[in-house]
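Dear colleague,

As promised, here are the two records you asked about, laid out in our usual form so they can be pasted straight into your sheet.

NAME FIELD: protein one
SEQUENCE, THEN STRUCTURE:
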Amino acid sequence: MVGHVVALDFGATSGRVILGEVGPDQLRTATHARFTNRAVSVRGCLHWDVLSLWQGALDGLTSAIREVPTVSSVATDTWGVDYGLLRDGQLLGNPRHYRDERTDAAMERVQSLSTQTEHYAATGIQFMPINTIYQLATDAAEKRLALADTVLLMPDLFTYWLSGARVAEITMASTTGLLDVHSRQWSDTLLNVAGVQRELLPDLVVPGTRVGALDPDVAKQVRAESPIEVVAVGSHDTASAVTAIPMQPENAAFVSCGTWGLAGVELENPVVTEAARTAGFTNEAGVDGRILMMRNVMGLWILSEAVRQWERDGDTISLPELIEAASAVTEVMPVVDVDDPRFLAPGNMPRRIAEWCTEHGVRVPANRAEMARCIIESLAQAFADAVLSASSLGDVPVQKIHIVGGGSLNRLLCQRTADRSGIPVLAGPVEATALGSVLVQARAMGHISGSLDSLRDLVQRTHHPVTYTPQ
């Protein structure tokens, strides 16, 4: 029997509501809403506008149910690390944005109590100032945490609003720097280091858990007339995206490319060696107990910010035309370190890239086409480096690189990643994150069955990637 499920897919720059039609030989999707996810700055603090996202989700869910009244389930995935503080079931304020520069003091304090070596051995998580542990330590030090009785990670916040169930889905929990990667339980030691009471965090659930029925008030708003189950999927968007990659993990690597570029390999067990730590690799939970050993590198954020700056300067930018112009550049462009912290916060990206080039004694791109080519070459090199390092550290002989997400539509980026790595690139599916959510929901609801490999086989039979051969 074919079933219908809905994926609420919130990326760091946009949200989507996607209706999935799934059966043993069928996997189709239709987009019912697409909306911008913009950071909001208030008195120097950067926030997420979660109520706008929630309204966008409700509008899209209403549209999907209008088309298919027999929708059986709904699930949420989001970007990583961020969270909401609640008391008595009420959100205490708009969650802070991970690009808000507020964690420096907390990082120093946490690392004075738990060294990077100790922390990495326990969690396997890459050290970045955006990590949840540092954000929570900041909230604890500034007394905000004392006001809350619950901390819900971003997808779990939407799950709570949908169902009333307070859970912590494990793939998202693994982004926090507070989950023991070996026991897959919250680490009491690290919670104490961060100043976080264990009672603030809900119990962990795995992807595929049916957490409860759609809340009656929500059901009324979206005009649902038949029961709808709320399901926990791989709620970190990367975990859902990798679920839908039609790959053979024993000889393939992945790049989930959107705002960020998550590049690595899928393993059975974490790699928490000193070499992996110093190389900047993270070990996050995937669907069905897999481990995603990857490097969290810059993604299309840096190009999007450059475009936003040019538009702030008064020009209208067509991204396809910009990429075409970049493809025509014949001069060799510099490769900048896209993981330099200066590129993390919103702002004038072309100026920052020019400053980096000047400081490192390389030619500054002379125009927008060259600047775009410089960015794409730099991203391609970062992806290639991460994949080759993951191959070595994870002992995976990579013969194919699968690029999914928005980056799979960037033909120049895909080709240059193949060229710079020397490995063929298979691009697509674009909506891998939503597909991963749809597949896990459909399996939980009994519309399909089988292992993760079976889910990927369904993707392979219904979606066809574009191949880029190294040149």
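NAME FIELD: protein two
SEQUENCE, THEN STRUCTURE:
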Amino acid sequence: MTRLNNANLDRLNAGIDIPDYARERVTPGIVHIGVGGFHRAHQAMYLDALMRRGEALDWGIIGVGVMPGDRRMQQALAAQDHLYTLVVKHPDGSLEPRVIGSMIDYRFAPEDPAAVVEAMADPAIRIVSLTVTEGGYNVHPVNGDFDLDDPDVRHDLAEPEAPRTAFGLVVEALYRRRQRGLAPFTVMSCDNIQGNGDVARRMFGAFAKARDPGLGAWVEAEVPFPNSMVDRITPVTTPADIEELSSRFALEDAWPVVCEPFTQWVLEDRFAVGRPSVDRVGVQLVEDVEPYELMKLRLLNASHQALCYFGYLAGYRYAHEVCRDPLFVDFLLDYMVNEATPTLAPLPGVDLETYRRTLIERFANPEIKDTLARLCAESSDRIPKWLLPVIREQLDRGGDVHRAAAVVASWARYAEGVDESGEPIEVVDRLKDSLMAVAEANRECPTAFIEQRELFGELADQPRFRDAYRRALESLHERGARATLEALVRA
């Protein structure tokens, strides 16, 4: 058994791809906040690929953890010289392990926020990137503005030199660069939300303006926030993944990452002080990312929602199980073809029929073992961003909505907290308590769930949506998930 670190790279199993560049020559150019599995399977992988071409050695990544739970990640990576193994899982069961070397440091912000701020204030840092999840942008659930009442935000505004939040850290670093006459870095969101750069601009700009109007105006005028579309299925690393890497490749890695073979990154080419040449390793640089973004959000992400609640209620626990069931596949394709695709603008060079079929193949990969519980989590952040825009556009254009309405009904049924076999469901959502309380009334008042205006806005007032939702929810209660889907597919 060989432990993963710099000294042991040349001793690793021949089947493991290792960095062929001198890591001691890599210097920081990016600070990344939110080092989860997706960042390590995606952005850090692209940087590693570029470094293997002998390029971008001045674009090394300093990871930053803000949440208390990030301490464990910091410790695990520090013990491995910030190396980790990315394991691509192919549908035929083969594994493709690759050691990623583009991350060169990891800072735990709660331990020393001043050091994190100074790292970002360093002129060598030209990009601060983010994967802080859909709910990490502090958007007020009702009015969509920046939530200035958040306790940690209030702390950071009162004590800017000891920030607790990503907003406080980034804006304090920008403040110092401005004071020192340095150009700002680019803030690059890699989160899975529509208009991620635009959302980041509004939220970070609002925080900066609340701190100092002059600073807010400078951030608005000088700091680029490019939008991006990111895609790679990256399930949570399990103990079994760690054991498999150990048993098959004799490698001891405390926190590897597993992912599917497919990866995509579409990025607007707007940067303040340069960027790595990621277009040389497959990143699509475009003027406007929105058409690609909508394709992904409404076909891939919304389809994950379309399969996860129905699948879980029916007794499945993994995405690949659902997507090997012809009934579920027919329903997903019906949703994609008849409701999602009509809301998309034409994309030059993209065959949407092939893209849809590829999605089903990706979801059906048995080696990924993507849990339905993961896909069902944080629904109150996901469905309003991924699925409800499809419903609204289809209503405006007179198109079908009964499949998407049924997906919303499956979420409401899932939020009742028990599946069709009577087994308890662990609902994971920032609004868990209120969602489950409303879902208790599903049978007595079938439209109560969609009358939560902070989530659904005016949709409960739309007869076509309301009626389709009610029919689907009543069918789920009376006949169950499979019979409900059979009726939908026949319709």
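A couple of things worth noting about protein two: The chain has a mean pLDDT of 96. The first strand starts at residue 2 and ends at 3.

Best,
R.
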